[in-house]
Specification:
The complex is a heterodimer.
Chain A: H1 4-14, H2 21-33, H3 35-56
Chain B: H1 8-26, H2 29-45, H3 53-77, H4 122-134, H5 137-147, H6 153-160, H7 164-193
Helix pairs in contact in B: 1-2, 1-3, 2-3, 4-7, 5-7, 6-7
The chains are: A mainly alpha, B mainly alpha.
Chain lengths: 59, 194
């Protein structure tokens, strides 16, 4: 089973490449049980959004 | 006048925003200055009409982004460019996890609420910029190539001659650092104030 450190790494990698089937399943299972990692996932997604926003300079 | 879109003051302030943005990406005043000059010259020599300042800004920033990408590509192609990918040590964020690799109680990410509402805050963007600046140089470069300049990961690996695995690791560490910085400097204090 994945721990949080591995799950965080996989979430990050998932933003840069397509994860394997087993990795996706393992991650989904971990996220089901781990609120901390769910927050982490939302937050790295927010970082991406912020960068897009920042580049458009429409702030 | 070729500039119906605003006063000289507005252009000057736009120029300073562009410079900050370019310097953040290039980490070098002289190249940032060059990129800004070229982008402004290209933008203002065009026949494009702008209805407002926001349109002009979007347009010049799009040009600036391309100039920055060109500069990065040139740099990478010049010999002797070695990219250190281990600026953030492997164990840098180990403190966040216990020995089994689960979040420590005080490090477990807590909700940022409605983080998008920060987009309208000027201070948020200042903090965001500070946090980007605090990342080590090459880490920041890889991260910004990916997230701001829109490079695909394969392209970054190829351009910087690093392995895909290294590339993912660098990007992950950059996100860890940036997340932590925003958490401490923005979302945490925001919650405290609330």
């Amino acid at each position: 089973m994945l721990n949080c450190k591995q799950a965080a790494m996989l979430m990050s990698q998932g933003m840069d490449r397509e994860l394997g089937m087993m990795q996706k399943m393992g991650l989904r299972f971990h996220l089901l049980m781990c609120g901390g990692c769910r927050n982490f996932g939302k937050q790295v997604e927010f970082l991406r959004q912020s960068c897009r926003k920042f580049t458009q300079q429409d702030n | 006048m070729p500039n119906p879109d605003g006063s000289i003051d507005e252009l000057a302030s736009l120029r300073s925003d562009m410079f900050r943005f370019a310097r953040l990406q290039l980490r070098d005043d002289a190249s940032a200055e060059d990129a800004v000059q070229e982008a402004l010259a290209a933008a203002l020599s065009g026949q494009k009409q702008f209805n407002n300042r926001a349109q002009l800004k979007t347009w010049v920033f799009a040009i600036l982004k391309n100039k920055i990408i060109d500069t990065i590509r040139e740099r990478i192609r010049s010999p002797g460019t070695a990219i250190a990918v281990d600026e953030i040590p492997e164990d840098a964020y180990d403190d966040l996890f216990n020995e089994k690799g689960f979040w420590q109680e005080d490090a477990r990410p807590s909700s940022w609420g409605d983080p998008e509402s920060s987009f309208s805050s000027r201070q948020f963007w200042q903090v965001f910029e500070i946090c980007l600046t605090r990342l080590p140089e090459n880490t920041a470069r890889v991260f910004m190539m990916r997230e701001m300049l829109g490079f695909e990961t394969e392209e970054i690996c190829k351009e910087l001659a690093i392995s895909p695995t290294n590339c993912w690791v660098v990007l992950h560490r950059a996100r860890m650092g940036l997340r932590l910085c925003l958490d401490e400097r923005w979302f945490d204090s925001e919650n405290r104030d609330a």
